[in-house]
């Protein structure tokens, strides 16, 4: 384990496993984060790397290390979360397990040192100072507005949930054993320094978290020190471990993660049932019975040829209609993502301004926070399956429960978070698409049969703060 000073510098010059291709020295000082839009935010996060370069050469392929010597950016990173913030946060009523974990890597295994119930700051400090335990703080965006701003913009950018954890590790200690994750990881070094080792994946683009033993992972492919203001990215499945070197009082970094269960495989699992249902309405081949006793057979190899044929028919339909509906994934994302971070302008989430009328011109707002889906009518108790258009949005989501499971007090009796949005007849779909695809649209030009329907649609969207009258 390298020590502070010269050995840190020598590690990347003379060490057996250098971070060569992945390492990028910042040629000029990058500015602090740009919140103008999701693209500019992500661009400032990975600066000076260009986004097209990042996705062509690094995303899901290999690690990227951006080392910066920028005091301004280092100070900004430190403001996101500091070890000294814990005392005040503990006074808000944190709980072990839910809000934070205390852990340490012992003999290649994670040892959890959590107590029961509410976190006591003095006990937490004692475990950190005396037991050299790492503090893993869960989802700090619930408490830190700047992280809320960053993660909300990243959720708009990726179209995927973005979570975070803060890790605070004392000197000469390591919190977690070598492991890989099922998420794309962006690490921002906030305080102190952290010694990292990355290893070749045993499972490329892994779908689950797993701990790996030292004797199985071989030598590091990359080894380096992160300092305040530095950024590290690596794909899911990348085996990694990190420690705070001796001589560094402690290290604080935030891990921002995304793309959990967000692969083509996940999308197909979500979309194929709807495709089969729609195709079976028109294609009698999918409505013919399966062979007698098929469900009783141990070996169904004889049916694979027929299944292959039916799958080709589904592919043909998809090619011809170019319509593939995601149902649960889209809804899950919009129901569980962060609401917009508006700061002092929270009144934007209260209906106001001009009232929409038939001669009004309207504009969609919070475009990244709303989706349109076509689903079976959830309020129809008849046997006839009728489809309706649903508009779901995240404007009323609560940051306090973001990425925390089903603790939201808006959950239903089964513990599932309630969706916020509107329900319309299928005949409203084209008009909704007009609004979504246009920068502005006149209410009277909406593709609906009557002026009453046009006004009702505009009023419904305005009431949910999804449109404004201009």
TrEMBL record:
Keywords in alphabetical order: Dioxygenase, Iron, Metal-binding, Nucleus, Oxidoreductase, Phosphoprotein, Ribosome biogenesis, Transcription, Transcription regulation
Location, primary (coarse class): nucleus
UniProt xrefs under InterPro entries: JmjC_dom, NO66-like, ROXA-like_wH
Annotated ranges, domain JmjC: 139-271
Gene Ontology terms for molecular function: histone H3K36 demethylase activity; histone H3K4 demethylase activity; identical protein binding; iron ion binding; peptidyl-histidine dioxygenase activity; transcription corepressor activity
One of the GO BP terms on file: ribosome biogenesis
Example of a GO cellular component annotation carried by this entry: nucleoplasm
Subcellular location: Nucleus, Nucleolus
Top-level enzyme category: oxidoreductase
Cofactor note: Binds 1 Fe(2+) ion per subunit.
Catalytic activity: L-histidyl-[protein] + 2-oxoglutarate + O2 = (3S)-3-hydroxy-L-histidyl-[protein] + succinate + CO2; L-histidyl-[ribosomal protein uL15] + 2-oxoglutarate + O2 = (3S)-3-hydroxy-L-histidyl-[ribosomal protein uL15] + succinate + CO2
CDD domains for the chain: cupin_RmlC-like
Transmembrane segments: none
Cofactor: Fe(2+)
Keyword Cell cycle applies: no
Superkingdom assignment: Eukaryota
PANTHER family named in the record: MINA53 MYC INDUCED NUCLEAR ANTIGEN, RIBOSOMAL OXYGENASE 2
Recorded family membership: Belongs to the ROX family. MINA53 subfamily.
Physiological role: Oxygenase that can act as both a histone lysine demethylase and a ribosomal histidine hydroxylase. Is involved in the demethylation of trimethylated 'Lys-9' on histone H3 (H3K9me3), leading to an increase in ribosomal RNA expression. Also catalyzes the hydroxylation of 60S ribosomal protein L27a on 'His-39'. May play an important role in cell growth and survival. May be involved in ribosome biogenesis, most likely during the assembly process of pre-ribosomal particles.
Protein name: Bifunctional lysine-specific demethylase and histidyl-hydroxylase
Organism: Strigops habroptila (Kakapo)
């Amino acid at each position: 384990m390298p020590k502070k000073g010269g050995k840190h510098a020598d590690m990347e010059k003379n060490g057996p496993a250098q971070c060569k291709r992945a390492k990028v020295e910042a040629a000029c000082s990058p500015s602090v984060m740009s919140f103008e839009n999701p693209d500019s935010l992500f661009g400032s996060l990975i600066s000076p790397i260009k986004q097209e370069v990042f996705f062509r050469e690094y995303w899901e392929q290999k690690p990227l290390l951006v080392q910066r010597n920028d005091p301004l950016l280092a100070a900004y990173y430190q403001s996101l979360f500091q070890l000294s913030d814990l005392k005040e946060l503990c006074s808000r009523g944190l709980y072990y397990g839910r809000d934070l974990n205390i852990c340490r890597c012992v003999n290649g295994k994670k040892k959890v040192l959590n107590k029961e119930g509410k976190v006591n700051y003095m006990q937490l400090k004692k475990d950190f100072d005396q037991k050299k335990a790492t503090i893993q703080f869960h989802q700090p965006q619930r408490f830190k507005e700047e992280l809320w701003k960053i993660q909300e913009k990243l959720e708009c950018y990726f179209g995927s949930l973005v979570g975070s954890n803060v890790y605070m590790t004392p000197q000469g200690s390591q919190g977690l054993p070598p492991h890989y994750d099922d998420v794309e990881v962006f690490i921002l070094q906030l305080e102190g320094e952290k010694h990292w080792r990355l290893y070749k994946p045993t499972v490329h683009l892994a779908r689950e978290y797993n701990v790996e033993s030292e004797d199985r992972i071989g030598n590091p492919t990359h080894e380096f020190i992160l300092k305040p203001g530095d950024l590290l990215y690596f794909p899911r499945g990348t085996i990694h471990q990190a420690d705070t070197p001796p001589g560094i009082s402690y290290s604080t970094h935030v891990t921002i993660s995304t793309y959990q269960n967000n692969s083509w495989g996940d999308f197909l699992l979500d979309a194929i049932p709807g495709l089969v249902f729609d195709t079976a309405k028109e294609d009698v081949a999918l409505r013919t019975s399966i062979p007698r006793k098929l469900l009783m057979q141990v070996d169904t190899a004889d049916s694979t040829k027929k299944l292959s044929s039916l799958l080709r028919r589904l592919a043909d339909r998809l090619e011809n209609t170019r319509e593939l509906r995601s149902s649960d994934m889209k809804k899950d994302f919009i129901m569980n993502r962060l609401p917009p971070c508006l700061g002092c302008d929270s009144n934007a989430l209260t209906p106001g301004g001009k009232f929409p009328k038939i001669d009004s011109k309207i504009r969609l707002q919070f475009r990244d926070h709303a989706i349109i889906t076509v689903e079976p009518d959830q309020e129809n108790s008849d046997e006839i399956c009728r489809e309706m258009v649903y508009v779901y949005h995240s404007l009323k989501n609560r940051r306090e429960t973001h990425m925390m499971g089903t603790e939201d007090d808006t959950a239903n009796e089964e513990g599932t978070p309630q969706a916020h949005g509107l329900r319309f007849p299928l005949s409203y779909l084209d008009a909704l698409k007009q609004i979504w695809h246009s920068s502005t649209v006149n209410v009277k030009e909406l593709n609906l049969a009557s002026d009453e329907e046009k006004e009702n649609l505009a009023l419904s969207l305005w009431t949910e703060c999804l449109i404004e009258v201009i």
